[in-house]
Amino acid sequence: MLTERRVHLCVSGGIAAYKAVELCRALQKAGADVRVAMTPNARHFVGPLTFQAITHAPVLTATLDPSDEMAIGHIDFAQSCDALVVAPATANLLAKAALGLGDEVVSTVLLATDRPVVIAPAMNTVMFENPAVQANLRTLAARGWHIVSPDAGELACGAVGPGRLPDAEVIVRAVVDALGPRRLAGRRIVVSAGPTREHIDPVRFLSNPSTGRMGFAVAAAAARAGASVTLVHGPVSLTPPAGVRAVPVISAIDMCAAVLAAAEGADAVVMTAAVADYRPEAASETKQKKTPGPRSLSLVRTPDILAELGARRADGARPVLVGFAAETGDPVAEAQAKRARKRVDLVVANDVSAVGSGFGTDTNRVWLVGEAVEALPLLPKAEVAARLVEWLADHLEGS
Ligand code: C5P
Question: pTM value?
Answer without folding.
Answer: 0.77
